[in-house]
Known about the structure:
This protein has 273 residues and is an alpha+beta fold. Helix content is 22%, strand content 32%. The chain is built from 6 helices and 14 strands. It has helices at residues 2-16, 50-53, 78-91, 100-111, 158-164, 217-223; strands spanning 23-26, 32-35, 41-43, 125-129, 136-141, 146-152, 154-155, 181-184, 189-193, 202-203, 207-214, 227-243, 246-260, 266-271. The strands form 3 sheets. Strands 4, 7, 8, 9, 12, 13 and 14 form a 7-stranded mixed β-sheet that branches. It has a 4-stranded antiparallel β-sheet with strand order 5-6-11-10, with no helix packed on it. β12 and β13 form a beta hairpin. The protein is globular. The two termini are 41 Å apart. Mean pLDDT is 80; it is low at 1-19 and 46-66.
Amino acid sequence: MNRLLLIFILTFTAATACGQGVIELKTTDGRTVLLKPDGTWEYKKDASEQSTVASRNPPASGDKTTSSLSPNFSGTDPKALFDRLTDLKQRLTKDEFETTAQFEKRAAQEKQKPVLGTLTLADTFTFVISQSPLRLDAEYNADSQQMTLFLSVSRNDRSSVRTYLGGDKKTAWNLADVNVYHIDIDNKAAVFFDDLNGFTLSKKFLDGFMAQYHLNVDEAKRLKNKIKAAVLVQLDEPYAIPSMGEMQFQVRLVDVYFFDQDSGRVLATISSR
């Protein structure tokens, strides 16, 4: 009933607000609703959600002219997500006084709750990667006026053998033992995946995802050291584990894109779709 009443109030208020600016309205649970002049509405996001909101609305694949992120976009904080996933995994442990049916019901409910900000396990998370040797590289060719963007992907050939011998991701002590590929987010975190999910690896000095962007020399000089990459992923069990001081995330790839850190402008998008 409260939900229906809220929808009625929002619809009525929004309808009478035409021609005015955005109106803020507090709900009974403390959230702020933004009523827009065109009759639409949305919940106002607090500061802690700003870095994750773009994960719900990634740039359109192949769109190099209109797709953009917020300036200085930082994506999902690996440490914050890791801590929340660690807490979730503790809650997903079966208690000795629970029946299997009770545990499965409770676990299903836990998995539907927000993990970070408003994002749940069903949502897409975005990890931002800065330029670094053997991780992310941008090289310009003045003759062709092409910037080549390259994100390294590490391949672990041993994992296929270990998986065949009974490696289980849910009980693994090191996700490198049960996955073929991984991408380093930074020196302390990495995403691991066993399937390219339709992506194609290119070969430079290492395997990786490669894209090219056409731009003039002046623009290339400005962007040279300001290009970052972002990896859009969905989480898989066991979600996250610590291994030798590294935060490891078990994921499925969704998209990879390169962008200008200052403006947030997306330069190139690589997608499996």
